Every structure is written in C-alpha cells, then in structure tokens.
Amino acid sequence: MARVAARLSASGEQSTHPVDEVLPLPKLALYGFQHVLAFYAGAVIVPIIVGSALKLSPEQLVYLINADLFTCGIASIIQAFGIGRIGARLPLIQGVTFTAVSPMIAIGLGAGGGTAALLVIYGAVITAGIATFAFAWLPANAFRAVMRLFPPVVTGTVITVLGIVLIPVGLNDAAGGLGTPDFGDPENFAYAGGTMLFILVLMKLGKPFLSSIAILLGLVAGTAVAFVLGDAKFGDVGNAGWIGVSTPFHFGVPKFEWFPIVLMLIVMLITMVETTGDTYAVGDIVGKEVDSETVARALRADGAATALGGILNSFPYVAFAENVGLVRMTKVKSRFVVVAAGVFMIILGLLPKAAAIVAAVPHGVLGGAATVMFAMVALAGIQTLAKVDLKEEKNALVVGVSLAFALLPATVPVLFSKHMDPDLSSLLNSGVTLGATAAIVLNLIFNGLAKDDAQTAVHAPAQVVAEAKAEVAVPAQPAAAPAGAEKAAEKGAEKGAEKGAEKGAEKGAVKTAEKADDAGAPAS
Question: Please, is 168 exposed, middle or buried when counting C-beta atoms within 10 Å of its C-beta (0-12, 13-18, 19+)?
C-alpha cells in the first residue's frame, strides 16, 4: 500500500491529505467512471487516426483500441498509486499523447503502412520510453538543473497552449467528428450545446455532489436524449467480441531504425514538458506540494508506460490535460479515483463489448462535455501565468509569441503540407510542439535559466518556509535542542499563531505549528 501522507491540522491533529484519501467504494467507482468517460474520446482517437492512416483492417483497428485502453489503465495506476519512486501519486490520468500522431503517421507511411509500419513505430516507442525513464533517474542536482528550463512562464504557457490546442478537438467533436458525413450538421451542435448547458446548470446549482459528477451526468443525459431521438446507435455492441486480450508483440517483433527513434525521442522531450506542466497544474488544484522529485517520479511513469505501450501494441503516454480540467471542475482530489479509473480502463480493454457501449456516445455529446473541460485546462494554464509578472515585457513576449507559434499549424496548414520537407513537417506540424519549443527557447533568450528550482518558482515553498521561520524566529532543532530553544520556539509559536489568524490557517497556524513542533515546542 502506498504511503499515505499526513499533515497537521490547525488543531495540531494529524489528517490525511485529500489527495491520499480513499473514498467509499461507490464514490470511487462513480468518480472513476466519470474520468473514463471524460478521457475515452481522447484515448481512442489516436489509435483510430493512426490505424486509419496506415490502412489497417477494422479488426486490427479494434485491437489497437483495446490495447490502448488496457495499457492506459496500467499506466494510470502506476502514475496515481505509485510503485516505489515511480509515479507522481497525484490524480493524473495517463493517455496516448496527441503530439506523437503526426510523427507516427510519417514513420508508418515511410515504412510502407500496414502492420509492417507498426513494427517500426513500436521499436521507436520502446526506445524513447526507456530513454525517458532513464532521464528521470538523473542525479538530483542534474535533474534540477534540467528542470530550471521550466519556470512558471514556461509551464503556464505550455498548459495554456494545451487547452487552446485541445479546444478545437472538442469543437470538432461537437460538429459531429472530423471526416464524418454529417460533420457540421446543426443537429450535432444542438446535442453539444444541450450537453454543455446541462453541465453548466449542474455546476451553477452549487451542490457539491452534483457538481462533482456533472460531466458524467451530462454525457449520460445527452446520450439518453440522442438514443430516444434515434441518433445514438448501439448496433456495434452486438458485433463486438466478449473478450479481447492484448498480448505482447501481437503484430510481430519491433524494428529499431535510427530516424524513427530520433523522431520519437523529440516527441518525448515535448511530452516531458506537457507532463511537467500538468503535474504542477494538478498540484496547484489539489493543494499538494510538487517538487523536482515529484516531477521526476511522474516522468518515470511516463517512460515506463511508453516502453510498456510499445510492448503491448500501443503508443507513447503522457499525463492527460483533459482530466486535469476534470479534477478542477469536480474538486475531487483523491488519487485513488484515478486508480479506480485505471481498473475500469483495464476492464474496457479486455471487454470489447463494454468498450463499444462507451464508444456509442454521440460525437456531439462528447464534444459538448470535452469543450468545457478543455477550456478549464486553458484556465489552469492562465492561473499558473498569474504567478508570473506579465508587466515585465520579457515574460509577456514569451507567452504571446509562443501562443502565436502554437496556432500556426491550425491556421496555415498548407505551410506544413506543401512547403516543408515531409520529415520536418511530421515533427513540427503540432501546435503543442511549436508552442512548447517556442516557450522554452524564448524564455532562455530573454530570461536565461531560472535561478530557483522549477518547483520553487511555481509553488514558492521556500518563501513560505522562510516566512514561517521568520515568524517562529528560530530554526528547526533536533530533539536534543540546546537550552533556550524551547522558549524561543514557544514565542515563535505564539507569534506564528497570531500571524496565522491574520494570514490564514494554511500559511500561518499550520506552518508555524509544524515548525514549532519540530523545534520541540507543543503545537499551538
């Protein structure tokens, strides 16, 4: 069982952090299933797009989807539950990264398409996963030096870019799904608008429980209305098999070729920025301190999941920003909800019929819910940027120009399709790739490396500790403290309690009580 973190309440009693709270089984199941529904469209879209581009058969495509869901479940459990020093132990869902779609299609088409292309892709995926896993085990000083590339102006920009780039994905679903015969039909927008309105009304009511499952109820209500009107079709459920187990190297032994491997390594560099941003974002949302070690554990989970994905016929994995938005909306902070979601995903990956039922949710309904969540992702990024001094012209340029680069692939697609080398296009034809790269490079040009650890820059625990120490007026002492330390600690506790009343329990009373207790004084 993962170690459950404890903290001191204002009264000095130990309490479990909401992130580590194990909810009752019915709530775990309900909230976990909501995460699955919110995540499902994003989870299956990558194998559908890649499989279709590589001209796979319908049976092979179904296998890819099941393999993806099965591996997503394992990866999410590793990330949320944690295994040793692997996994952030935060409510982070793992899913296949959209950043890898164009590169994987380019690799696959270069290999001739079909299952032969999958073998080359999987060789690159396994190698990139192992490299990411190894990178996250760098010595602490070296890793912190790398993390200095990601101060709040960079992570906030990347999260905002993720939300902005994902919103069109939600809107495409709201229009009926890109490439479908009824794409753009007003009826699809009616379903999307109705679902969105239903979710917003539930949120407006302000009832904590209803708000926490608003997305789930919106998807269920929208699908029910569509079924009554004849627009939700469950015919494919009867055609799907009952059991479908994903076995290692189902399509054959992976092939390891240098250019696909280099391309996938670059993809994983971008996903590391995504996961870093998502880890800090969800840490802010749930009120859990995130430091360099937490980020390292999250990246190790990414690397392990990506290598596992290549073995189990899936693709590169990243912390899913969509579900970060869901955590923010529902305010359900327990990481064990994500563990429950992982169990559901494993079951869906083993039961094609169950997956087919979830897949029957109409695009319009999914789009309405997804657009709300993606907008919340962008808001999470904006909140991180609120910690940045945007009156400083250098920071403003980093954010503004990076957003402009992120919009380039969607705004001028012809640049990448007709006027760029195919290999280069496969790498750069991604808003997330361009936006994240621009943010890192521009920040280095204008600001240089962050002076503090990235975690310090985002959450400023060092400042909080410094303030607490100033209030206590004595550094923390071991149990055998020298004479005078106890009196100083008691005075500090009294002063900290007064400050806590003025500044709030979290910053004053709790922190002061912790410091005073460490110094040998009773918590006040």
Answer: middle
